[in-house]
Write a structure and sequence with these properties.
By secondary structure, this protein is an alpha/beta fold. The chain folds into two domains: about 1-25 and about 370-460, Arc Repressor Mutant, subunit A; about 30-325, pyruvate-formate lyase- activating enzyme, CATH 3.80.30.20. The protein is built from 18 helices and 20 strands. The longest helix has 18 residues, at about 80-100.
């Protein structure tokens, strides 16, 4: 399994643009407030009629501490009782959503994100999962993927035991950086011992997979300092790793205004950090999945990429492309059939809708045929670095060269630069193009090409 990217500084500098991460296509910036929620209900009923398996996402917005780099929808508070009020509303949403689906539809994937899901105590998390199990059919098969994001500062062994007993099979740990100076600068101070304790608990209790998040580009980061963090993380051997580029967008995310821009590493240092960290991970046996993600060769993500079944959605890379995604909680996003919806991001509006026995939908989008075609193309490229036109033609009854005539013309410079090769049989991303996969996908994004509004997006690398 050799999926390693090739580093080409000249190409990276040339394609230094901002663009979508393609956790969806069309991206969330295209969702409209004028969306008719009946489209969502119709999609849910069709899902119910066909018995599609489900993926459930629950957004827990609370954090006890604010991390200055954060771009999530969150509420920073030390008042734990606020979670009880929120859960009462979330329970109401669970009931309303469950009414749209078939009680025999299996939940094969479940994820708690945030915020900090472990802001909830053991009793609250247990109550949430019990409520879900009352209204949805939780699967107990070997292929389930029930995961939760953890703050190692707030998790002890009894909590880990509770999570395992509730059926969670995978945890995601926010590490970011192990350097104390960097941690102080972003208000995320957590010692290595805390992280190792959570990791030891996960392995002792036979969690199937451990994911760790790292961020490069944070204030006071240096090449040597971050490589020290990488060495320590490699020694811990998480099954999956994300190596995210910090996007400094203080005009959009208020906590980032507490970061002094002059403390951020220069662009050339950021690239050196990414290059050397990637090399270390590959040399230590990790597989490059794509878009900042790495996994051990025996992890499900790596195996799904190898057999062509890898998928990408709002939870990132996933092995559950067969599932309809139902998001619950403030700001959460669903994709059911050909319909996207997002809940209210404002807590008052979220609660007000539920008090009226309405799904708290704020905006959405119903995909047309063109959206579906382009989504398939982008998913193939971003997951597998290869796309076969014949498969698209067969599924959607189009002539690929005619349908994508302008895109194929616009791709010529990328082909001349060695990012891709195009033949009648396949569009293949080269090793040098893998790090720039977002740029390649952007060529098939009709919304981006029309607007090229980059203020919403992070740098592609």
């Amino acid at each position: 399994m050799n999926n390693a990217p090739v580093w080409d500084t000249g190409l990276i500098n040339k394609y230094d643009l901002s663009g979508p991460r393609y956790t969806s296509y069309p991206t969330a910036v295209e969702f409209s407030d004028d969306f008719d929620r009946q489209y969502y209900q119709s999609s849910a009923w069709l899902s119910s009629a066909t018995g599609k398996p489900l993926s459930l996402y629950f957004h827990i917005p609370f954090c006890q501490h604010v991390c200055y780099y954060c771009a999530c929808n969150k509420i920073v508070t030390k008042r734990r009782e606020q979670a009880d009020t929120y859960l009462n509303y979330l329970f109401k949403e669970i009931e309303l959503q469950a009414d749209l689906y078939n009680e025999e539809q299996e939940v094969q994937q479940l994820h708690l994100g945030g915020g900090t899901p472990t802001f909830l105590n053991q009793e609250q998390i247990s109550a949430l999962i019990n409520k879900v199990s009352e209204h949805f059919k939780l699967s107990h098969g070997n292929d389930i993927d029930y995961s939760i994001e953890l703050d190692p500062r707030e998790v002890d062994w009894p909590m880990m035991s509770t999570l395992r007993d509730l059926g969670f099979s995978r945890i995601s740990i926010g590490v970011q950086d192990l350097d104390p100076g960097v941690q102080q600068a972003v208000n995320r101070v957590q010692c290595e011992t805390q992280i190792k304790s959570v990791l030891d608990a996960a392995r002792t209790m036979a969690f199937k997979s451990v994911h760790m998040d790292l961020i490069y580009g944070l204030p006071h980061q240096t090449l040597d300092g971050f490589l020290t963090t990488i060495d320590k993380v490699i020694a811990m051997q998480p099954d999956r790793l994300s190596l995210f580029n910090y996007a400094h967008l203080p005009h959009r995310f208020m906590p980032q205004r507490r970061i002094n821009e002059s403390d951020l590493p220069p662009a050339d240092v950021k690239l050196q950090i990414l290059q050397q960290a990637t090399r270390k991970l590959l040399d230590s046996g990790y597989v490059y999945i794509g878009m900042d993600h790495f996994a051990l060769p025996d992890d499900e993500l790596a195996m799904a990429q190898e057999d062509g079944t890898l998928h990408r959605n709002f939870q990132g890379y996933t092995t559950h492309s067969q599932c309809d995604l139902v998001g619950m909680g403030v700001s959460s996003i669903s994709k059911v059939g050909n319909t996207y919806v997002q809940n209210h991001t404002d807590m008052t509006e979220y609660q007000s809708a539920l008090e009226q026995n309405l799904l708290p939908i704020k905006r959405g989008l119903k995909m047309n045929k063109d959206d579906r075609i382009r989504q398939r193309v982008i998913n193939e490229l971003i997951c597998h670095f290869r796309m076969e036109p014949a498969k698209i033609e067969q599924q959607y009854t189009i002539d690929f060269p005619s349908y994508f005539l302008s895109e194929l013309i616009n791709l010529k410079p990328l082909e001349q630069d060695g990012l891709i090769t195009i033949t009648p049989e396949a569009l293949e991303v080269s090793p040098a193009g893998k790090l720039l996969i977002r740029n390649i996908c952007m060529m098939f994004d009709q919304y981006y090409q029309k607007q090229k509004n980059m203020k919403f997006f992070s740098k592609t690398i």
